[in-house]
Structure formats: C-alpha cells, structure tokens
Amino acid sequence: MKPYIFSVPLRQFDLELLPPEARSIGSDKFKDAVVIYFANQYAAKGESAIVTVDDTEIRVISFQKSVDPMGFAQELLKDGKIKEALPFLEALSEAKPNDALVLYNLGIVYSELGRFEDAVVRLKKSVQLDPDYVHAWVGIGVAYARLERKDDAKAALNKAVSIDPGNGYAHRNLGALLAMDGEYQKALPHFREAFHQLPDDPQAIYGLANCLAELGELAEADQLFIDLIDRFPAAPTAEMARQGRTRIAHKNLRGAAPGGIRPDVMMYILGALKTFKEAGAKKRQEITFEIAIKGQSGLDINDPTQKYSLSTLPGKFSGLHLLAIMHTGFKQIDPSMNSGADFDVEYEAAKKLFGEEK
Amino acid sequence: MLKLLPETKNLVDQLEQLSHRPVEFMRIDSLPVLASIKLARNGAPYHILQYRPSNSPLDYYIAQQVGIALRMFEQPEGQRFDFSSDGSGEKALESIIKASARISSEDMGLLPMFVKSVHQWALMQLRSIPIGMRVDAWLFESFPNMREAIKEGLAEQQQMNAAALGMSVGKLTPPSNQFAPAAAYALFTDRLLGTSYSIPFKAAGALEEGIELLVIFDQMQHSSAYDIQLVDAWARELGMQGWYQWIPYQP
C-alpha cells in the first residue's frame, strides 16, 4: 500500500481527542499530543506515521512499516511524478529538517518546478549538512544558472568538480555555462569529461558536438551530431543536432568557396531577384513560404541533385538552390526573418549585380 | 486505445444494451478525476466516458462509473431519474458557515465564491458516494480479477477525499458535517480492505456522522431500486433536503 498523506487545519482538529491539558491550540503540549495521537492511531493498525504540526495545520504521512517513505518519494521522482512527490518531501523535510538526502530531493523538486530560490535554500542546507554532497552542489549550480546567476552557478559547479572530478553532470553543466559565455576553449575539457563519463547522455553528446563545432572541429562535431540523431531521434537535443549539422554544412560551404563568396549561391539569389521582380509581391510570398514549409522537414543542401519541385514555381531545384531562393524572399519580405542560411554576403553581391544589370 | 479487462468491457456492453446507446471513450488530459461518464440525454446518440490517461489501470474507475449508470438503467423507463440542483442549497449552506465561526470582513468577500464551490462539492459527494459504495461492494464481490485495481483505485480515491480536509479559502472551511460522506466512504473502505483511511476523519471530528451514514447505508435495501431513497436518507441526515431535485431522465 502506498503512503497516505493528508493535512488537517489546526482549528478543525477535534480537541476532545486530546488530554484536557493539551487542548490549547498551537501550544507545545498540543503539538506533542497531536503527534502522539496520530502515532498511536496508526500503530494500532500496524502502520507508522510522520506527523508535523505548524502554525496552521497538521500534516501526516502514514505508511506500512515495510514501506520507506523516502524510498517511495524517490520512486515517484524516478517515474517523473514530480508534483506527486512534492507533498511527501515537504512533510519529510519538516519531520527531518537535518536530513541532507531529503533536503537534496526537495531542492531538486523545487528546481524542476521552477521554484529556484526555494531550491537553492534547501540544496545549500543540504551541503551545509554534508559538504561533500556532490549532487547537491550540481543542483545548486543548475538552480543558480536558471536564476541567471552565472558566477554563483560556476562556483557551485567548480566545487562539485573539485569534490568529484569524475562527475559527468557537474562537467556537463559547467561546460554549458562556459559555452553560454562563448568560452568554448575552457568548456571543451568539461564537455569531453562529461561525454567520457556519460557516453549515453544526449545532452552530454550535444554539448561536446556543439562546442567542437564552435571551435572549428567540424568533422568530429558532425560525427557526434550524426551519432546523437541516430541513437536518440526523439530527444529534444536531436532537433538541435539537426540544426547543428546544418550550421556545419554552411560553414563547409563557406570554407570551400574561394574568397568567401559562393558563386553558385550568388547566381541562385540573382535568379530569385529576377523571378520575384517579374512575379510580384504576392507570388514572391507564396514561393518563399512554400519553400519554408518544405524546409521544415529538412533540405539537403549537400546534394547537388535537382530533386525538389514546387507548386508555385516551375522546374526542378537542388536543396541549396531552394534555400537561396527562400533567403532572398525573406530578405525582401521582412529582413528580420531568419532563413537559417548564412548567405548575406552572396545576397549583397547579387543585389549589386542585379542593380548593374538593370 | 484503452486496454481494459474483459470484465470492464462486459460492463460497458451491458450498459450499451440496457440503455440502447453506445459508449464513446474520450481521452481528456485535464480531467480532474480519472474517469467520468456523461449519459446520453435528450436524443444524444451516445454516452461519453471521459478518462484521464494514467499509469494506473483505469478499469476500476471506468467500472465504477459504468456501474453507477447501470444501476439507473436497471430501473424501468419512467423510474429513471437525474439528480439536479438549482442552487437552492446555497443560502442554507451560507447560513451554516456564517453561524459556525466569526467571519472577518476580508473573508466575507470570499464567502459567495466559497459557498458556491462547497455547495457543488457537497452535492457531488451526496450523489456519488453512497451509490458508488454500492457499486464498489458489488465489483469487489463479483469480480475477483479486478480486486487489485479496486484496491489501487480506492487508495487514490481515499487520498483525494482526505485532501479535501485541508480545503479552505482564507479562514473559511466547510461545515464539518460535510466531511461525513467521505468519512462514511473511508469507514466502508476500511471495513472492505482492512485499511486505516478513516483516521483523518476522526481527527477532524467527522467520524460520528460518517458512522451514522454508514449505518443508513447498511440498513437500506441494496437493490438499485432503493438508490434514490439511500441518497435522500443521507441528505436528511446531513440537513440537505431541498438542496436538489430528482427529475425524470430524458433519453
């Protein structure tokens, strides 16, 4: 049987159940008598109870003697039942205010529920009680990061790493914080260690791949992105990995182009400028948005085969060609729109050429 | 698609045959309860059984809802009634709450909304708990294969009922006798399963009236023909006469 939790407002408690000298609500005698009352009631049924009394209510967790309420709360957490675990952990933390494990779990639950300040308080109390509690230090780092207190977050994560140099989560989160500040060189060893410790963790794989991509190690990064997409296709990081691959493809394109300008892209854009001028604004919008919709499922810009067609524009197109047309459309419709392609240099060059041709 | 025990499916079939209407299942992720049936009324082509997805088996919840509906459809046409309220109990409830404690001016502003929600909750309990207990006893006795699901479902139900003990808005709390139906249900469950769900209701001073309701429940004939009398008898005990009406069910 699962633990059973309930609360009774103080003024609702039936005072007749307590000895006459303990009927002054809120007094120490009252609190003690309430605890004893519930303990006896559940003991008579062969069960245990954790009872806490504060200024407004009595909170009780009852459970069979064979059940460990902390273990039950951890099972709930393992199943992702964060909200269900919260009342148990709150009651446990009231009953056991100096239990580092309870405080750690409550802190993590608060953090998951977006109550970061509450999380930090519990997690800090947890490390006061157990200064080497590395998971709690990681939790503090994550909560501070979510509060955008990066320096505090880095300090907590560095502390975690110093306690346990092999803690993959500490390295992964520290790497992510450094990367957010553009410190990719400093982040890299942390991501490498995180990946070493957590080879099956999609976030660790993504973190390392992204960091490598930013540092120009494109081949290794791309291989990690591919690996991530293959192994965890449904993970949120898989979509980020697909975007990462696109960025790498763009970098490769740019790198392969002498002088930094891709002439094929420039010619595609020039063609698009001509087409749009002839077709008019409405048609331009239709063409652009049709490509954008097609692009949601991915355009293969590395394959030169003309394998795409549009209902709004006759002909066959390569993925790169469509991307160039879309980029042009976005630039003309609303320059703040992002095509995801780094074609601004080609666009400016094509526009200049287009002006000269006219 | 819902995976249901054959026993649960049979109950759904029985309801479809008795009522001459199919049952449509509708998943609603935000449903406040795990399952709820909306009977076809006024020519509606089907009953709707709403359910909330859960890791726990839904058989008990669905069987209980279908069981309550079956008890109505077991009655001959013309003897089938819907439970209805026009809010006439709200004034009585407001007077009881006002008489039970001094209400601050701050809480006085919250009173109308609080009365409305307690009124609705009290009627829902009055309508569903006594007949639900009849169905629970029948399911437990008749379907041994479903007993684990019943135990799990009752545990969840009792947990929800106990949570209502903490119900308050400002310093306003429901009159203690309104916890009596849930207390009776906890006592009934303890008797059926050997559990200890009634302890919180004893602490909240609601057990005595819960015992009275359970006595009425035990003494009344168990046949579905007496369901309306059972609800009416509980209402008399709770001082809720006139809070609701029985109106003819319009298929």
Write the layout of secondary structure elements.
The complex is a heterodimer of chains A (358) and B (251).
Chain A: E1 4-9, H1 28-44, E2 47-53, E3 57-64, H2 69-78, H3 82-95, H4 100-112, H5 116-129, H6 134-146, H7 150-163, H8 168-180, H9 184-197, H10 202-214, H11 218-231, H12 236-256, H13 263-279, H14 281-295, E4 308-309, E5 316-317, H15 319-333, H16 344-357
Antiparallel strand pairs in A: 1-3, 2-3, 4-5
Chain B: H1 6-19, E1 23-27, E2 35-38, E3 47-51, H2 59-73, E4 81-84, H3 89-100, H4 105-142, H5 147-163, H6 180-193, H7 199-203, H8 207-219, H9 227-238, E5 245-248
Parallel strand pairs in B: 1-3
Antiparallel strand pairs in B: 2-3, 4-5
Helix pairs in contact in B: 1-2, 2-4, 3-4, 4-6, 4-9, 5-6, 6-8, 8-9
Fraction of residues in β-strands of chain A: 5-15%
The total beta strand count of chain B reads 5
Mean pLDDT across all residues of chain B, rounded? Answer: 92
**Low confidence ranges of chain A:** none
By helix and strand content of chain A, what is the structural category?
A: mainly alpha
**Global shape of chain B:** globular
Oligomer: heterodimer
- The total count of strands of chain A amounts to 5
* Alpha-carbon Rg of chain A, integer: 30 Å
Return the string of H and E elements of chain B.
HEEEHEHHHHHHHE
How many separate domains of chain A? 4
Q: What's the alpha carbon Rg of chain B, rounded to whole Å?
A: 18 Å
Q: Write the H/E string of chain A, N to C.
A: EHEEHHHHHHHHHHHHHEEHH
